[in-house]
Amino acid sequence: MNVLPPFQSLLDEHAADVMAVLRGAVGRSDADDCFQETFLAALRAYPKLGDASNLRGWLLTIAYRKATDHHRANGRRPVPVEEIVEVAVSDPEPDGEIWGAVATLPPKQRAAVSLRYGCDLPHAEIAAALGCSPEAARRSLHEGLKRLRKELT
Amino acid sequence: MKDALDRLADRADAENLLDVAYATVDSPFGQLLLAATPRGLVKVSFPQFGAEATLEELATRISPRVLEAPARLDEARRELDLYFEGKLAEFELPLDWQLSDGFRKKVQQAINRIPYGRTSSYTEVARSAGNERAVRAAGTACGANPLPIVVPCHRVLRSGGALGGYGGGLPMKEALLKLEGVL
């Protein structure tokens, strides 16, 4: 039988990582809301979860979906401008130029870089969280890093 | 992070996702773990049982949606504090009996009718639960009380007046009976 641990233990073990990933993915100011949405969705689904073997991957998958929803919702409110300028969706992180640059990456690259370096996830887990193949995860990470290198030098 | 977690507990409660809220509270007998469902207090656990084991039991027997959310336990904490100070004779907070059933539940509810400062025996409790001869089962039911202190199993003694047993240890049983002026 599938035994689910008390939900609190998921918070104790993974809340900090989920927050770190979300800060990388949507920026510090919006990460709090995405964090609430992530854990409320997880709490809703939890009693019916069939497989408790990778709770961390499960939570990060939900977090990634919430970050994507967040970007989509922002994308639906376009602001007309004369000239299109590449800008960060959120203000750059106060704690580092690098994470500020990460926040300007396209969503998939941003998520891959955040999961790899914000959260120390291996490629297989990044792939699980992004819902893509490990090769695709590796490619997003590679593209993201290439772009960061260009921007930061 | 603490703010985010507090907010999460509040929202989970508002959206009916907080099946079991718990808190640890200090007492003269060490840290107690209190847990409540939306219906009422469901579990009081002594330190020697281990918080982790208790939480796992709650997750398995009630719901895995178990969160540390002290707000729901405020009333229980308040009444327990008053009780330990000798200023409260009868607990008024709602109880959820779902961790007990059958004869055990009847015994525990009989225990819950023993007034402050009085004692009863395992035999009397068995009788009051509807089966005078089930004295041993009544003893087991006392030991399985999910709500010690609040449901006063410390007021149940052996027929000869000997203390009998107690989940929190005999010194605690003795101290509670002294607090109530029995010993």
SSE order of chain A, as H and E? Answer: HHHHHHH
Q: In the CATH hierarchy, what is the superfamily of the largest domain in chain B?
A: Methylated DNA-protein cysteine methyltransferase domain
Low-confidence residue ranges of chain A: none
CATH architecture of chain A: Up-down Bundle
Count up the helices of chain B: 7
Which keywords apply here?
heterodimer, A: 153 residues, mainly alpha, Butyryl-CoA Dehydrogenase, subunit A, domain 3, 7 helices, B: Double Stranded RNA Binding Domain, Arc Repressor Mutant, subunit A, four-stranded mixed sheet, two-stranded parallel sheet, 6 strands
Draw up the topology in text:
The complex is a heterodimer of chains A (153) and B (183).
Chain A: H1 7-26, H2 28-45, H3 55-75, H4 97-102, H5 107-118, H6 123-130, H7 134-152
Chain B: H1 2-14, E1 20-27, E2 30-37, E3 40-45, H2 51-61, E4 66-68, H3 74-84, H4 102-111, E5 120-121, H5 122-128, H6 135-143, E6 156-157, H7 170-179
Parallel strand pairs in B: 1-4, 5-6
Antiparallel strand pairs in B: 1-2, 2-3
Helix pairs in contact in B: 4-6, 5-6
Task: Write a structural description.
Helix content of chain A is 68%, strand content 0%. With 153 residues, chain A is mainly α. Chain A has a single domain (7-152), classed as PhyR, sigma-like (SL) domain (Butyryl-CoA Dehydrogenase, subunit A, domain 3, Up-down Bundle). The longest helix of chain A has 21 residues, at 55-75. Chain A starts with 6 loop residues before the first helix and ends with a helix. The mean pLDDT of chain A is 82. Chain B has 183 residues and is α/β, with parallel strands linked by helices. Chain B has 2 domains: 2-84, Double Stranded RNA Binding Domain, CATH 3.30.160; 102-179, Winged helix-like DNA-binding domain superfamily/Winged helix DNA-binding domain (Arc Repressor Mutant, subunit A, Orthogonal Bundle), CATH 1.10.10.10. Chain B contains 7 helices and 6 strands; from the N terminus they run αβββαβααβααβα. Chain B has helices at 2-14, 51-61, 74-84, 102-111, 122-128, 135-143, 170-179, and strands at 20-27, 30-37, 40-45, 66-68, 120-121, 156-157. In chain B, the strands form 2 sheets. In chain B, strands 3-2-1-4 form a 4-stranded mixed beta sheet, with helices on both faces. Chain B has a two-stranded parallel sheet with strand order 5-6. In chain B, helix 4 crosses helix 6 (135-143) and helix 5 crosses helix 6 (135-143). The longest helix of chain B has 13 residues, at 2-14. The chains are: A mainly alpha (153), B alpha/beta (183). The A-B interface holds A 3-9, 11, 15-16, 19, 32, 35-36, 39-40, 43-44, 46-47 and B 1, 4-5, 7-8, 11-12, 15, 17, 20, 22, 55-56, 58-60, 63-68.
